């Protein structure tokens, strides 16, 4: 199984991280035991800036928004519609620089 190592940024929560990657927060917790030096912190859902979490790869990829990106530009780059991209990201309509956007696999 493939994993992404996510380094927790300031003000991030476990729930927010699970939404970024489209995975269940319990899966992040379970997967993080091997990579985590302090299991007790993760067990209490107490994630802190700088903490590294192992996250199972979802069916898609994570794109980090660049200057002047829009949902439309990102969607076009990956061959999907802006509506589909929005749906997979809790209905977002705008993105900001550095935002993580889950790009679903293109259905064939």
Give a description of the structure.
There is one protein chain. The chain is an alpha+beta fold and 108 residues long. It folds into two domains: 3-56, Roll (Membrane-bound Lytic Murein Transglycosylase D, Chain A), CATH 3.10.350; 60-104, Membrane-bound Lytic Murein Transglycosylase D, Chain A. It has helices spanning 14-21, 25-32, 39-43, 71-78, 82-87; strands at 3-7, 52-56, 60-64, 100-104. It has a two-stranded antiparallel sheet. The protein has a two-stranded antiparallel ribbon with strand order 3-4.
List the main descriptive attributes of the protein structure presented here:
single chain, alpha+beta, Membrane-bound Lytic Murein Transglycosylase D, Chain A, 2 domains, two-stranded antiparallel ribbon, two-stranded antiparallel sheet, 5 helices, 4 strands, 19% strand
Brief digest:
The protein is α+β, with helices and mostly antiparallel strands and about 110 residues long.
By CATH, the architecture of the largest domain is named Roll
The first-level CATH class name of the largest domain: Alpha Beta
Radius of gyration (Å): 15 Å
- Tally of extended strands? 4
Strand order of the largest sheet: 1-2
* Mean pLDDT level: 80
Q: How many H/I helices?
A: 5
Our estimate of the beta-strand percent is: 15-25%
Low-confidence stretches: none
Q: Please state the overall shape, judged from the principal axes of the Cα atoms.
A: globular
Question: Which H/E pattern describes the elements?
Answer: EHHHEEHHE
Overall tally of structural domains? 2
Q: Kindly, what is the distance between the CA atoms of the first and last residues, rounded to a whole number of angstroms?
A: 23 Å
Label the structural class: alpha+beta
**Helix proportion range:** 25-40%
Q: Kindly identify the CATH topology of the largest domain.
A: Membrane-bound Lytic Murein Transglycosylase D, Chain A
Main beta-sheet strand count, sense and barrel state: 2 strands, antiparallel
């Amino acid at each position: 199984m493939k994993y992404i190592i996510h380094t927790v940024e300031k003000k991030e929560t476990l729930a927010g991280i699970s939404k970024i990657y489209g995975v269940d927060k319990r899966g992040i917790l379970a997967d993080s035991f091997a990579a985590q030096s302090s299991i007790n912190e993760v067990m209490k859902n107490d994630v802190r800036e700088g903490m590294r979490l192992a996250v199972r790869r979802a069916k898609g990829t994570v794109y980090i928004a660049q200057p002047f990106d829009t949902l439309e530009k990102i969607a076009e780059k990956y061959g999907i519609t802006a509506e589909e991209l929005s749906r997979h990201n809790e209905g977002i309509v705008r993105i900001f620089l550095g935002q993580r956007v889950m790009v679903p696999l293109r259905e064939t």
